[in-house]
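Run folding on both entries below.
>entry_1
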Amino acid sequence: MSTHVTSSAVPPPGPAGPQGYPARLTARLDAPLSRWLWLVKWLLALPHHVVLFFLWAAVAGVSVVAFFAILFTGRYPRPLFDFTSGVLRWSWRVAYYAYAALGTDRYPPFTLADVPGYPAHWDVTYPEHLSRGLVLVKWWLLALPHYLILGFLVGGARLAWFSGGLIGLLTLFAGVALAFTGLYPRGLYDLLLGLNRWVLRVAAYATLLTDAYPPFRLDQGGREPGTAA
């Protein structure tokens, strides 16, 4: 049986369902993929990494402002929310192109906004109210068990999950499979999407974008649980 994955349309994420997590990751695997382009994507993605370095530095400052805004008002200012979620979205597109998935050869766009035609999407529902007390502990104490897991998944990653850890190792296996067979193993792709989904859920929680605690659950594949096939 072939392990080749054909490309299929995956729409940008919509509103979370009644049981869905408010941060949503979706993607489709482009086909065919180059056998060898993945060897130089570290160089091709370098401009994005430079821009993201400064964007994540800005997120650190924005998060401080958002922390006090939530503490005193119970709301995350919408412009700051859109900025932080946009940086996470940009990071996911670059990670999907490069060494967190190798799921596309299409060069990522330089934008915070969602790009409907791009094969990787991420979004988070804007909360009308956030807990003023929870903001004091969720990003460091409550998220600590997830940080331990993420340390295993992403290793020594800096801006996002660009290298190291289980995700980096599995992505290397995917690249080797592409080089020798021209095919991306379906099970490996679904597993990588599930691991990245876990990372993004924790990132949304840690950056104060949601009060919904990330589930200890590996939801594999390019679609969020509960969405139509």
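>entry_2
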Amino acid sequence: MTTAIAALSSTAGRSHLQESLFSWLAPESTPPLPETKALVESDPEGPPEPPAEEEKVDLSHVWVVAAEIEVIPKIAKVADYRGSFKATEGQRIDALEVYCKGCRRPYDEVTGQDCSAKIDNRHLIGGDQSTRAKRKIPVPPRNARVVPGGRIQRRGIEAYVGGVSRPPR
């Protein structure tokens, strides 16, 4: 049996396939544009980035209606248990008040203005918490005496037997 050995050319065969397979690894040798080169030399940080477009915050009110709806006793029981119910079609609902869900202010006072709760909601939590006054300790009456109580054991078997860590029955 005779075996013929022939050299593979670079245009046909495996070596050409390997070169094309890994050609993306070779660095590109494109000359830089003259404008870019001048800019890089004068400003080492590169070209300034375009300003990012900021998303506008939605400051509009979310309106809710406090309503009064007459229901039958069966629906009243479901509403009391679940906290919600389904109204019947065509039922008339009397609106007691229309106000913003966020800032809780009436419609006629703040219509056309931005919602203050979305801007700063400190007014809803009693003002700035860092500058708010501390709670006042009540002063006992003049003729009152403070009587110290017994020591309460909160840990160990004594606490369990005493009922401190047990749920009430």
